[in-house]
Amino acid sequence: MEGSDQPNPVALNLQGELHMAKKSWDKARQYFQRCADLKPDWWIPYRNRAMVESAEKNADSAHQYLAGVVDAVDSAPLRIEMANYAERSGKYDSAIQQYEAVLAKSADNQVIANNLAMLIVTYKKDAESLNRAKQLADSLSASDNPSFLDTAGWVQSVAGDYQRALPMIQQALRAAPDDPAIQYHLAMTYLGASD
User: Fold this and answer.
1) 49, 88, 116, 163: which could form a disulfide with 59 (CB 3.0–4.6 Å)?
2) Mean of pLDDT values over 115-122
3) What is the rounded average pLDDT of the residues 23-46?
């Protein structure tokens, strides 16, 4: 950074990453903060700062940190990071809220729809949440992606519609025969259908 009156945000972020690699957490935090101060709309230093918090075995602290910046930055990757930390901290409503915010701006993003549907059916049991998961699953049911098909089928299975669930999960398993999650979902759907 010699010869420059203004520090370079990319260089500051890189220095933070180097300190993070050396587990110099406080130094890494300082560089990521300086980077964010210079380029407040860039999501990378915030993500990296959350990674420092998480590296110190504190997903809750990472979630809290991101909660303070995610709305101002409003970046899909940062919201997804926050959703991951929120889920690991047991803050499922917060994770769902972040995925919903990403999906609101990118309604055709099947990866986000898939993750959101699975998150909802894993942690929420109320009728409104299940209806939302089914709505998301409907958008995945015509996919040829085995993960998406598995999610679509599993949502139907959790909702008790085993006959609708079975073909989707069976097709997912044909495409990914060694996937243990799909195997489990198929077995549980057969059990639910008394087969």
Assistant:
1) 88
2) 96
3) 95
Euclidean distance between CA atoms 42 and 37, whole angstroms: 10
Instruction: Give pLDDT tens digits for 152-161.
Output: 999 999 999 9
pLDDT mean over 172-191: 96
Count of C-beta atoms within a 10 Å radius of residue 26: 8
Nearest to 92 by CA among 61, 129, 127: 129
Nearest alpha-carbon partner for 67 in 30, 103, 95: 95
Residues with Cβ < 8 Å from 159, sequence gap 6 or more? 130, 133, 134
pLDDT in tens, 38-62: 999 999 999 999 999 888 877 788 8
The 10 Å Cβ neighbour count of residue 135 is 13
Phi, psi of 144 (to 5 degrees): -105, 5
Q: Are 175 and 144 in contact (CB under 8 A)?
A: yes
C-alpha separations of 14 from 5, 9, 34, 42, 177 in Å: 18, 9, 12, 14, 41
Kindly report the pTM of this predicted structure: 0.82
- 70/65 Cα distance (integer angstroms): 9
